[in-house]
Write a structure and sequence with these properties.
The structure holds two protein chains of two kinds. By secondary structure, chain A is mainly alpha-helical. In chain A, 72% of the residues lie in helices and 0% in strands. Chain A folds into two domains: 50 residues, no CATH class; 138 residues, no CATH class. Chain B has two helices and no strands. Chain B starts with a helix and ends with a helix. The chains are: A mainly alpha, B mainly alpha. The interface between A and B is large, with 52 and 32 residues.
């Protein structure tokens, strides 16, 4: 539905502005991103408010988006599957993050463990491509690895510094989200590994 | 009207090209990328 709507709107834009077919494809691609993302954000926000897990779900979603954009990983083959999986996963992690699963003094141990796992995944597999899109340029891949390691280290330091100020709910939500984002960038999740 | 449509088209082009240097646009679905943008990978 999103694809068809995007194609229709991009056709209208291109006929009005006399753009080429190449340009129409780019506009349709941009529209699919805007419409698809908006539908997911609105659904997640509404359901999180209904289930009273808005803060933890917001932390999960924001952390996930920041890392996911860079590291890549598995994708669903249709928008409907993606919608269902994305909304369910964010709400599930938001729910887990809002429950007192881990005592706040254990968060630091978990944090170090997850940081080391993510560093290993970054060195070994990031950026993980898909059948539709894979970054093959060696220099670009090296740059993405460095960017990921820098962001991961900044995230780690921020959580360590503010662990006493933030609630364990926020810390745990962020940890779960990072773990999911990096797990999705491993070959276990059927991504396309680029051999270099 | 044409100015508004041009602005919308520019914004959509910006969104589309912003995903080229990164690996995933957002969650777990990746729309088919246009050939013209794949060249930039």
């Amino acid at each position: 539905m999103i694809r068809r709507l995007s194609d229709d709107i991009s056709c209208y834009l291109c006929s009005s502005l006399s753009y080429s077919d190449d340009k129409r494809e780019v506009l349709s691609y941009g529209l699919q991103i805007v419409l698809g993302t908006s539908a997911k954000i609105i659904s997640i926000a509404i359901l999180a408010i209904i289930f009273d897990i808005f803060v933890s779900t917001a932390v999960v979603s924001i952390t996930f988006i920041i890392f996911r954009r860079i590291i890549g990983g598995v994708h669903c083959d249709t928008y409907n599957k993606c919608y269902f999986v994305s909304v369910s996963l964010m709400l599930l992690l938001g729910f887990l993050g809002s429950t007192p699963l881990v005592q706040s003094n254990h968060i630091i141990g978990l944090l170090i463990g997850i940081y080391l796992i993510c560093v290993f995944i970054t060195i070994k597999w990031v950026p993980m491509g898909t059948n539709k899109k894979a970054i093959k340029n060696k220099e670009t891949r090296r740059r993405i690895k460095l960017k990921t390691l820098t962001m991961l280290t900044l995230w780690f330091i921020t959580l360590v510094i503010f662990k006493d100020l933030t609630s364990s709910q926020i810390g745990l939500s962020s940890l779960l989200s990072i773990l999911l984002a990096f797990f999705m960038a491993t070959p276990l999740m059927n991504g396309v590994k680029i051999e270099l | 009207m044409k100015k508004l449509l041009t602005s919308i088209a520019c914004m959509l082009t910006l969104v589309a090209t912003s995903g080229v240097g990164t690996n995933s646009i957002w969650f777990v679905y990746e729309p088919d990328m246009p050939e013209s943008l794949k060249k930039e990978l």
